[in-house]
Amino acid sequence: MGLYLGIYADKLRYFSPKGQLIPTPVEAALLEKQAKESERQQKELALQKIEQLTARLRELGINPDQTL
Fold it and tell me: Which residues form a coiled coil (predicted)?
């Protein structure tokens, strides 16, 4: 894998061959949790937009459930 040791924030840490900091297991779990929360929020916003557009179509007399 070719990891290297280095100092980051006064702590001994692993780095990739390209110099990127390798997250600790705790940091990796936090990053994954944040990514999942962001994805959940994006889905919620998309659903809200769909509901708004569906309501607008109905206001215009268009049935969005009807296939063309």
Answer: 28-63
Residues with Cβ within 8 Å of 4's Cβ and at least 6 positions away in sequence, in order, are: 14, 15, 16, 17
Single out the residue of 36, 40, 39, 17 nearest to residue 28, CA to CA. 36
pLDDT category at 68 given cuts 50, 70, 90 is low
Q: What range does the domain containing 43 cover?
A: 4-59
For the chain, the domain total comes to 1
- Per residue in 14-60, pLDDT (tens digit) is 999 999 999 999 999 999 999 999 999 999 999 999 999 999 999 99
Enumerate the β-bridge partners of residue 6. 13
Amino acid of residue 21:
L
